[in-house]
Specification:
The complex is a heterodimer.
Chain A: H1 2-21, H2 35-39, H3 41-51, H4 59-71, H5 74-79, H6 81-93, H7 110-124, H8 135-164, H9 169-181, H10 194-210, H11 214-218, H12 221-228, E1 235-239, H13 248-252, H14 275-279, E2 285-289, H15 302-320, H16 326-330, H17 341-347, H18 353-358, E3 365-367, E4 380-382, H19 395-399, H20 410-413, E5 420-423, H21 429-433, H22 439-443, E6 451-459, E7 465-473, H23 483-487, E8 496-499
Antiparallel strand pairs in A: 1-2, 3-4, 5-8, 6-7
Chain B: E1 10-15, H1 31-43, E2 48-51, H2 59-65, H3 68-74, E3 87-91, E4 100-104, H4 105-109, E5 112-116, E6 118-122, E7 126-128, H5 130-133, H6 149-159, E8 164-173, E9 186-195, H7 198-209, H8 217-224
Parallel strand pairs in B: 1-2, 1-5, 5-8, 6-8
Antiparallel strand pairs in B: 3-4, 6-7, 8-9
Helix pairs in contact in B: 1-3, 6-8
Classes of the chains: A mainly alpha, B alpha/beta.
């Protein structure tokens, strides 16, 4: 059983990492890149509660939840990529000399239930707060925008070193060519906040040092949700009369689910990993199907339940009255197909799938910091000076696991306005210096050109006169893709900028007709 | 082609594939034209034919959707992506505006450079033809070249000297260049202009387009600096009509 579980864990972790890697242009949606996120029961439940609708994307998560009722928290033991990561890190980092294991404390088990209650209460009130805590989400986020760029930088750096060796240069460049043809980004843009994402993951991994699977036992709200639904499980650990009471099962149980009698098992905490079966010398332990009888406790007393509820309500209230000034609000450019702002914030789980896929084409999306207030932390915003929304791309909507970004057909996306460009005439070269430039006009992807120009005789700063092509924006045509902002050759803040004026959210209030 | 390519040469073919557009949009060089040039080079005994461009949109999109990557590879060319670390800073001794710039190593080291521009309208230069197509082997922030463009593009062309220029006017983008997107801005001309005098080829292209070469600043500048002649009437032009 242990071997089967390990194979399953490695398979799912590798699949997870492979999908993170495959979240890129060219995108082949045979296996959706957001599969694991959709399989998170917490994402499913929270999304449905928050949006008060049955979002089709997340039905897989409900299926996982339904399977949990008979099978228990097998997801945590066999599938969860963060759980596996924790165990791999533990294996790699622990010294060979086995210290005498002391059984971890059960004191903090309530923590995960409190976090879960807080998340669910907020969801019922219409605010989604799962994004900092869901294990699949936080691992996807860190893998996509922190680990992946580190990995590409390491590989490129290594090849760069190899390329310096005279007789290996050709080989190094063949290596580059091979990588780029196989989904390696040609230019990996650096992401905002990667250090923070990285540190947060390291902290969770470091908790392993405190005790094994500390996160899963004490903090993980997905584990709490699955545990809650495991109370009446049919698949259960059983111990027969051959038990020699050696206590190895209890010592080895990573979830601390085995009671002091070595027989009773917490249905809520047990993740069916089979470790106890494999270490049982007299072969007295096995898993069997039996009539559903409630066993194990959900460690959340009334006092803490009320506390968690109050905390959830208070957080929702505080986020609701958070202040974002008009100027900052107008600088928030959302991906094409984004829901109206309030719905978008509640639907977006900050997994960075869209940010990752965008970085492989135009590269405008970045995790936000305070641009849309604390409530919008880590949501995707366009930073047009860094990258632009690629005219022929609609991948962000295709990889969004919750429908925060609507899947727009390409011909609709090409007409969807996400913002509007304005010239800053004090910085635009033709306007302030009286010299031709028009890089913005050249790059404007709208077939009829949303940037056009008039020729005027202007007086230059040195007093001479010249015939200059002066650019202007055609407001009706501009879709706010921002390539003009990205490509503007002015140093620093460009001669053209974007605001969210004219943005069309989805479902669009007006039809997108040409 | 054997007049330009000797056995064992490394040839660099520089089409325009800067944009994430389809062949029928006429924003990039026609893939069939590129493939044919690759085939001729291979026939002439080239050791290696490379086809590349530093694109404006994301490179993989441009290489794929222009159709050039597939067509050229089919004829045996290498179609590598341009790597930022392979640009070298070179001085431009005859430069009037630019004294140095970043050039792509593969283009400077190739035995033969064949420039294969496409004929398009362009807001800054009026037209974009051969002289401007060589911007695709430049590194750095090319947006800086847009002001005082005529002088700068000629500066670049004093360093990069293609042995052969083949102007693709199969389809011509009449308006909203250089990337277009509307099929109604495209005119089918089914013409290819070849020449060793790149200024003359560009001038001929301008005439095809219905423009007076003497009105195009970069051509006047190029002639003044001795890169070639824009007086097409004085040249021997051979017209070959192919039946489809």
């Amino acid at each position: 059983m242990r071997t089967a579980r390990r194979i399953s864990q490695v398979f799912f972790l590798l699949s997870f990492l492979w999908l993170v890697w495959r979240t890129t242009y060219p995108y082949d949606s045979l296996i959706p890149a957001d599969l694991f996120l959709r399989a998170s029961a917490l994402v499913a439940v929270t999304t449905i509660l928050t949006s008060r609708s049955l979002v089709p994307q997340v039905l897989l998560g409900l299926l996982v939840l339904a399977l949990t009722v008979p099978l228990g928290r097998a997801f945590c033991g066999w599938v969860c990529p963060l759980g596996t990561t924790l165990e791999v890190v533990r294996k790699v980092s622990s010294s060979k000399r086995k210290a005498p294991r002391k059984t971890p404390s059960t004191r903090w088990r309530w923590g995960k239930f409190a976090i879960l209650v807080g998340i669910l209460v907020s969801a019922v009130l219409g605010t989604q707060l799962l994004w900092p805590f869901d294990p699949v989400v936080l691992l996807t986020r860190t893998a996509s925008v922190a680990l992946y760029p580190l990995f590409t930088a390491a590989v490129s750096g290594l090849l760069g070193l190899v390329a310096r060796v005279p007789f290996l240069e050709g080989a190094a460049y063949r290596g580059y060519a091979l990588l780029y043809s196989a989904w390696f980004p040609l230019k990996q843009p650096p992401f905002h906040l990667v250090e923070l994402f990285f540190v947060l993951l390291v902290l969770i991994l470091a908790l392993e040092k405190a005790s094994r699977r500390f996160w899963c036992r004490n903090l993980c709200p997905l584990g709490a949700l699955l545990g809650f639904f495991s109370q009446f499980r049919v698949l259960h650990r059983e111990v027969d009369e051959n038990c020699s009471a050696c206590g190895l099962c209890k010592a080895r149980c990573r979830m601390n689910a085995v009671e002091d009698d070595y027989v009773t098992t917490s249905a809520v905490e047990c993740i069916a990993c089979g470790e106890c079966v494999s270490v049982c010398a007299p072969r007295a332990t096995h898993y069997a199907l039996r009539k559903p009888v409630r066993s194990g406790t959900v460690d959340l007393d009334r006092r803490r339940f009320i506390g968690a509820t109050v905390a959830g309500v208070a957080t929702v209230g505080l986020l609701g009255v958070g202040f974002v000034d008009r100027g900052r609000r107008a600088s928030v450019i959302r991906p094409p197909g984004a829901l109206p702002e309030a719905d978008f914030l509640d639907r977006c789980i900050r997994c960075q799938e869209c940010v990752k896929v965008c970085s492989s084409t135009g590269g405008c999306l970045q995790p936000s910091l305070w641009e849309s207030g604390l409530v919008g932390l880590w949501t995707p915003v366009a930073r047009p000076r860094e990258g632009y929304c690629e005219y022929n791309c609609n991948l962000c909507g295709q990889v969004c696991p919750t429908g925060a970004i609507h899947r727009l057909p390409l011909e609709v996306k090409q007409l969807t306005k996400i913002g509007l460009a304005f010239f800053d005439k004090s910085r635009c070269i033709p306007w302030y210096r009286g010299e031709d430039c028009l890089v913005c006009e050249e790059h404007c992807p709208v077939p009829d050109k949303a940037i056009r120009f008039d020729e005027h005789t202007v007086r230059r700063p040195d007093g001479s006169e010249a015939l200059v092509k002066l650019p202007y924006v055609v407001e009706e045509l501009c879709i706010g893709c921002g390539i003009c902002v990205t490509k503007c050759p002015v140093v620093g803040q460009g001669g053209i900028f974007l605001t969210s004026a004219n943005e069309q959210r989805w479902p669009g209030s007006e039809s997108l007709s040409q | 082609m054997s007049a330009f390519v000797r056995r064992g040469d490394v040839v660099l073919v520089k089409p325009n594939m800067a944009w994430d557009r389809l062949p029928e949009h006429a924003a990039n060089t026609d893939p069939e034209v590129v493939a044919e040039i690759v085939r001729l080079c291979m026939e002439a005994g080239a050791r290696k034919v490379k086809v590349l461009d530093r694109t404006c949109n994301e490179a993989r999109r441009c290489y794929l959707r222009s159709g050039i990557q597939k067509a050229a590879e089919k004829e045996g060319a290498e179609v590598p992506f341009v790597l930022e670390q392979r640009f070298v800073k070179m001085s431009i001794p005859e430069g009037e505006e630019l004294k140095s710039w970043l050039f792509y190593r593969d283009a400077m080291e190739a035995d033969v450079l064949i420039n294969v521009p496409v004929l398009k309208s362009h807001s800054v230069s009026g037209l974009t033809i051969g002289l401007k197509n060589l911007m695709g082997i430049l590194g750095g922030d090319r947006g800086q070249l847009h002001h005082r463009f005529d002088k700068k593009i000629v500066d670049i062309n004093t360093v990069v000297r293609p042995q052969l220029t083949l102007l693709d006017a199969t389809r011509v983008l009449l308006r909203n260049g250089p990337q277009g997107g509307n099929l109604r801005d495209v005119q089918q001309m089914d013409t290819v202009v070849a020449g060793v005098d790149r200024v003359a080829v560009d001038a001929y292209g301008a005439l095809l387009f219905g423009r007076d070469p003497a009105q195009l600043g970069f051509l006047v500048e190029a002639q003044r600096r001795g890169l070639g002649t824009l007086d097409v009437k004085r040249l021997r032009v051979e017209k070959v009509t192919l039946s489809a």
